[in-house]
Amino acid sequence: MKTTYREAIRASIRDALLDDDRVFLMGEDVGRYGGCFAVSLGLLEEFGPERIRDTPLSESGFVGAGIGAAIGGMRPIVEIMTVNFSLLALDQILNNAATLQHMSGGQFTVPLVIRMTTGAGRQLAAQHSHSLEGWYAHIPGLRILAPAVLADARGMLSTALQDPDPVLIFEHGSLYSVGGELADDAGAVDIARAAVRRAGADVSLIAYGGTLPLTLDAADALAADGIEAEVIDLRVLRPLDDETILRSVAKTHRAVVVDEGWRSGSLSAEVSARISEAAFYDLDAPVARVCSAEVPIPYARDLEAAALPSTERVVSAARQAVRHE
Amino acid sequence: MTASHAAGLLRQMVRIRRLEEKCVELYSAAKIRGFMHVYIGEEAVAAGVMAALRPDDAVVATYREHGHALLKGVSARAILAEMYGDVEGCCLGRGGSMHLFDKQTRFYGGNAIVAGGLPLAVGLALAEKMSGGERVTVCFFGEGAVAEGEFHEALNLAALWQLPILFCCENNLYAMGTALDRSESQTDIALKAAAYEIPAWAADGMDAEAVASAAARAVDAVRSGSGPHFLELRTYRFRAHSMYDPERYRDKSEVETWKGRDPIDSLRAALVARGELSDEEWAALEKSVDDEIDDAVAFAESGHPEPVADLERFVYSEAPA
Description:
The structure holds two protein chains of two kinds.
Chain A: E1 2-4, H1 5-19, E2 23-27, H2 43-47, E3 52-54, H3 59-71, E4 75-82, H4 83-86, H5 90-97, H6 100-103, E5 113-118, H7 133-136, E6 143-145, H8 150-162, E7 167-172, E8 179-181, E9 195-198, E10 203-207, H9 212-224, E11 229-233, E12 236-238, H10 242-252, E13 255-262, H11 267-279, E14 288-292, H12 301-307, H13 311-323
Parallel strand pairs in A: 2-3, 2-4, 4-5, 5-7, 6-7, 10-11, 10-13, 13-14
Antiparallel strand pairs in A: 1-8, 6-12, 9-11
Chain B: H1 3-28, H2 43-50, E1 58-61, H3 66-72, H4 76-83, E2 107-110, H5 117-130, E3 137-142, H6 149-160, E4 165-171, E5 174-175, E6 178-179, H7 180-183, H8 189-195, E7 200-204, H9 208-223, E8 229-234, H10 252-259, H11 263-273, H12 279-301
Parallel strand pairs in B: 1-2, 1-3, 3-4, 4-8, 7-8
Antiparallel strand pairs in B: 5-6
Helix pairs in contact in B: 1-2, 1-3, 1-11, 1-12, 2-3, 2-9, 4-12, 5-6
């Protein structure tokens, strides 16, 4: 069937609500407004205000309430409008959600799913555009997901809701309107492994979320030059699937990591370090990284584009890696 | 209030006092480490509120929570072993003094982020309401929490959604070393709760019977579906904020004045005056509490650290065996 990333997520939320009475959706404008990005449009009418629960602008309050409700036996899905706003709830996410199980000696688990929009590309400037999922991927106790394709938009939530531990799902804002074909019976997917989205033997391009489409475009451009790139979609940012990454690098001997986060202290730094630690002697070229410029994301269109990873920058980094002797 | 009820309050306060006097001693002997905050002087609050609860009600507290844990039903043994950092502790020694948790008695911490427990308590109450139960959630916090955004967010959510929760502000007049009138433009805390349309009133937090009576009224109202309620319990901490506090921020004379209102001495004297407590009964009470604490110390002394090999357990759930 034809669908979009937005509709696929909505269908996954709807399924979860139908399957399990304990599931409810909570967040700012998820109900009457239909969701800031229209993901939950129509769900209020179908499920009512108890289960499609509008909240005031109280990120720490309602994320904390989601944690308490999860411990209390419910299966909340908490939506935060954007990753920048999630910083207002960072106390609850780190000090409670990620910590309670360990701190209580295993007595309490927090079966909570938090969904939020991340990323730039829509001229929303410096307080709505950042990619901070790498920060969250730093935190033990959380599982961090980044659906980049329709099947993952459709299938990650239901697996995440089965997880007894807190799961954060980062939805890149530029993907919501992306359309395509999805199998009619598309359903739950694993939330453990990275995926090889394109096979190739010359260089590994490692991307996730919003950078996957431009990385696949880069692979097409490289193929036109006779360079066969393998494209890895990380999918799961914590815990990282080292095995899939290392297997690819062992084959291609070259790696380019694409990450919309800032380069310093980023997820791309972690991936690069793991390759250096575990596959140093497989490498024929230094690991390259394509990241965002180290600036707050600007509003102006050209400046914003210049700040972000692009197909051209990935192609250029891959060519350099392949030419390296 | 019946004689046995009042005697029960006295007994519970003495249990907390003796446990914590022992904790201070053990801290000085380096048996307990980390940050430790004792409740000495404030016992009437926990004793009075807990007396109004059913065993399956939920409690969320702060880092000054030894007494709340004990009265919720966590054993003195498990509490003390936790402070020793031993695997016999209620959290296997991973939490320590500030992070006591016990699933079985529905004691949800033990939260060392000021006001961090309020949203969590709101969520517990939300789950209870959505699943149609009638258990009450009680959330304790100090007046310092009132300056945090989470306090306001949590009260607003609880009121909007009419949740079965009782907020108990333990107003001991100092947020660590900052006096209430130096941190709040409006020092009438119950008034702040009332601004969220939450029924709120203050009670004398040095008088266990007054607290118990206020709490019984509030808990009954919450349980009967009247939505969130709020109590401001005006109390005082006799000891330092933590074990590292030189107390430069308050006069010794102020502390001595408040010690004249010791909640244990006051209730004991009232019971004696009413003919509800004989010397023999007091002696028996002291003896049974001393035995309980001695037993807990012996238990903690014989504890063991968790094997280092288990360090990374409980970060993520383990697959069922």
